[in-house]
């Protein structure tokens, strides 16, 4: 028995199917997964963390309100995050921010083994937040790729970091364990960003220390972007003025607030178009648009065609090869 097979396989999501009438086809919706390794959000607000090594052959389309870092150590297959597919092999890593839509499937006859690390994002950010680190983490999936392929010394270092995280998790009563976990997650994510597929590695310009702590705001946006969300909501929630939040948002993300939210919604819509049979109208509502007209205009602006045209093109084989092949 191999070292990896001695661990319990992780839960894999099953797509939820709802029926609309006896004679109509079932509509497939993405599954929402609430728990981290069986851990519910605690009443005292303590941030959750879980890591294991397990096997997976298939995980249906799902999303959750926590972050997830995976590092694959055996097997091959493919993973899709927000509609972007990537080949999986030993040494591939993927990272999901809250509510990123994703699915996973191994190649026929193969089983994939991976480290699976799940945590509430506030665990990463202490009272003295590093603006650059916040930008890098929340840029994964937008300004940088959701995937990274590790080889050679870089793969060995990432493996060692994940192994140390796993060992630390097994010793919760060790002095400073929570802080060590935070440091090791931070190290793993920085290694991820440096090796991210398609990352142009352009340097981040130095600037003055931001007066607005962006990580709590971005966490809030990622958890609530499918709801009615405005700068005034952030102002009330975090006690900054609307102009100050607006200016800081643009400086730290490179996007205006409304453009950032719109991109999150369209990326979520793309995943539903590709991996569910929900109607375009239902998808528009599900991802947070007030009206179908607003959704249609935003989708065309971003993709250059209607949502129905995009779905038909991709289902007719327009998706091409997986990224990373």
From TrEMBL:
It comes from the Bacteria. SUPFAM superfamilies: Homeodomain-like, Regulatory protein AraC. It holds the Pfam family HTH_18. This is Helix-turn-helix domain-containing protein. Residues 215-313 form the HTH araC/xylS-type domain. The lineage of its organism: Bacteria, Bacillati, Bacillota, Bacilli, Bacillales. InterPro entries: AraC-bd, Homeodomain-like_sf, HTH-like, HTH_AraC, HTH_AraC-typ_CS, RmlC-like_jellyroll. GO terms for molecular function: DNA-binding transcription factor activity; sequence-specific DNA binding. Keywords: DNA-binding, Transcription, Transcription regulation.
